[in-house]
Amino acid sequence: MIIQIGTISEMMRHPVKSMTGERVTQTMVMNYGLYGDRSHVILDEKESFFTITQFPPLVRYQASFSAPESLDAYPEPVITTPEGEAYKWSDSTWIREIEEASSKQLTKKSLSTGKCSNRTD
Known about the structure:
By secondary structure, this protein is mainly beta. It is 8% helix and 24% strand.
């Protein structure tokens, strides 16, 4: 017997910790949660997570994956600034903008593979 306990009306994935995420209609569910959720992070000078707690405007940036899901490597996120400019994760323009606004020295970090199941929240 199948018992329905709910209906999923919307799924959000956040490729970059503390940025606004993306709606997904289909994704893989991994042992840590939705595929690619918080697979990319920003670290401060102390190598601590740089989040909306330290810099609330970070939530005005949106991250989404730019390619299909792959178990070999996470797709490169696209970062959309509050002004609507879109940059690849590998482009340093967007992070320099955040560094200037926050007066912090920042580093981008990403997990190297979609197979990775160890994630630090």
